[in-house]
Write a structure and sequence with these properties.
Helix content is 20%, strand content 34%.
Length: 372
């Protein structure tokens, strides 16, 4: 069996991009197909196209609606690495940046003016994302030149504006109805804020984890020593947010965890220091959907982030991450709130993926694993 796909970088993530019609032709459940394509379960993903990290074991499935106000619909899949499973519980903001570029490169949307506007809908969350791709003189530049923190090489500039992002997963910006809650992990009570915007996120103070705002460069090691505790907090938060009935049923990808603190006094370029976890490990940069949640958390009185941000509301928020400062923006347009961030994207390869097994073999193996 052969499947056509594009390999693309969006922001600080890489993903394989499929068209829904191509996957449908296989007549195989994507929950079975994607792990085998990626080479899971295997921590190396050696017999598949996965990159063996949470930021590279990702897929986007695109669909072109024939009518309506949306140019492209897309579904994000976080493909398991050490398990043959797919998490559909949230969107990936970084990978979202490939959607508008793909639509232009494939001719689904015609480039126009200096910026081409593509209306996209993420089916995981129902979120409308207005993508603005730089197309000077009505065309993609011959050579991409836009740069962003966390990526050493340039790409095409893509602005992502999340339209009215609050509550797309749980129905409310504050899923519990409170700006601050207490989560029990072990015998310790943790003061957290749970916010749903872009993606559900549980936010903790760095100081509560023994991480010093003045020594951001030491956070990575400090967080790694507390991953089990943070996972317990995350799973308890999933129950409180209505995302799972029990901690054991919490999905791997949602809610996300963000650790925040005021910036160092020697860091005038940032409004806050942030470290986010992705699939149980420190993120090398920042989940963009998470950055949307942090932006609204900073504006919401009573949250652990608003506590040090104060009452002032700024149109831009500068977040210090391991990869550098990422800036988000907010604006009102046509009666809607857009909360966004600028990314870059690039197509790395257009390819045909080969599968050695017959479909029946893959399905039988999946069923056998489910009954063990």
């Amino acid at each position: 069996m052969k499947i056509e796909a594009e390999w693309m970088r969006g922001g600080t993530s890489k993903c394989w991009v499929f068209e829904s019609a191509d996957l449908a032709e296989t007549q195989t459940s994507v929950d079975v197909l994607l792990p085998r394509l990626f080479g899971s379960p295997d921590h190396r993903q050696i017999d598949g196209v996965g990159g063996a990290t949470s930021t590279t074991s990702k897929a986007m499935i695109l669909h072109r609606p024939l009518d309506g106000d949306v140019d492209v619909e897309f579904t994000f899949a976080q493909v398991g690495i050490e398990e043959a499973a797919v998490d559909w519980g949230s969107n990936c903001g970084n990978c979202s940046a490939v959607v508008g570029l793909y639509a232009i490169e494939k001719g689904w949307v015609s480039a126009r003016d200096d910026v081409t506007r593509i209306v996209t809908r993420n089916t995981n969350t129902g979120q409308i994302i207005i993508q603005q791709v730089a197309t000077p003189a009505g065309a993609l530049p011959t050579m991409p030149e836009a740069r962003m923190p966390g990526v050493p090489f340039p790409g095409y500039q893509v602005g992502l504006g999340f339209q009215d992002p609050a509550g797309k997963t749980t129905g409310r910006l504050l899923p519990t109805g409170s700006a601050r809650d207490v989560v029990l992990a072990g015998e310790t009570r943790w003061d957290v804020s749970m916010v749903d915007a872009g993606a559900p996120v549980v936010i903790l103070r760095a100081q509560d984890l023994g991480l010093e705002p003045e020594h951001y460069d030491t956070w990575f090691g400090g967080v790694e020593l507390q991953l089990q505790t943070l996972e317990r907090i995350r799973r308890q938060a999933a129950v409180l947010m209505g995302l799972a009935a029990t901690p054991g049923e919490a999905a791997r990808a949602v809610p996300k965890v963000a650790i925040v603190a005021p910036p160092s006094i020697n860091d005038p370029d940032a409004d806050a220091s942030v470290m986010m976890l992705s699939m149980g490990k420190p993120h090398p940069a920042l989940a963009i959907t998470g950055s949307i949640a942090l932006t609204l958390a900073a504006r919401t009185p009573g949250t652990v982030m608003n506590e040090f941000m104060g009452a002032a509301v700024h149109p831009r928020l500068r977040l210090r991450t391991p990869a550098g400062v990422i800036e988000t923006w907010s604006e009102e347009r046509d009666g809607s709130q857009l909360v966004g961030v600028d990314r870059t994207a690039r197509t790395i390869a257009s390819t045909t993926i080969h599968l050695p097994e017959a479909i029946d073999t893959m399905v039988d193996a999946s069923l056998a694993g489910a009954t063990r």
